[in-house]
Amino acid sequence: MSMVPALSWLNRQRTVSSRQLRLPVVRQVVERAWPEVVAAERRDSVLTKQPDIFFVLVSNAKIAALHEEFMNEPSPTDVITFQHGEIVISAERAEGEARQRGFSLPEEIARYAVHGMLHLAGWSDANPRAAAALHTIQEKILRRALRGLC
Fold it and tell me: Quick check: is 47 in a domain?
């Protein structure tokens, strides 16, 4: 099994309180998910080449600006993964999605983190078939990592 890189969390938003985020729980879920994400690596993976992976929590406004700058899409999104190991997550979007779908906020943030790690592991959601496959593996990994935590 591959060595776990430093998994760092940076909260760069003020919309969702730290108390609501429960980052210690999210960190634990992501660390539990790591071995399964590594096991799911594909040929185009850069995941295990990363010395560090940074999860950066931002507002909808910030992620919309990044989405426009790097993907020419001027709208907020849930997560953007950069191949150098930075995974940007909208805490605001996670809060809304969690409430709408009946999940806890830490679970939804962990979902976005696993999604981003799977992108680093070579998974794509560029077309409907690839997106369905990524969603299936993401939810399988997340279910196992969440046991007893959220």
Answer: yes
Bridging pattern class, strands 79-82 and 86-90: antiparallel
Length of the chain: 150
| Helices (H), ranges, 40-104 | 60-71, 91-101
Question: How many domains is the chain partitioned into structurally?
Answer: 1
Counting residues of the chain whose pLDDT is more than 70, the rounded percentage is 97
Cβ proximity of 26 and 113 under 8 Å: yes
- pLDDT tens-digit readout, 40-72: 999 999 999 999 999 999 999 999 999 999 999
| pLDDT reported for residue 9 | 96
Q: What is the CATH number of the domain that holds 71?
A: 3.40.390.30
Return d(Cα 66, Cα 110) in angstroms, integer: 20
The answer to whether 142 touches 33, Cβ cutoff 8 Å, is yes
* Local confidence band at 3 (pLDDT 50, 70, 90 cut-offs): low
- pTM attached to this predicted model: 0.95
Q: Which domain holds residue 30?
A: 6-146
According to DSSP, the β-strands at 6-11 and 52-58 are parallel
**Assigned domain for 1 exists:** no
Q: Which two tokens stand for residue 83?
A: 């191949």
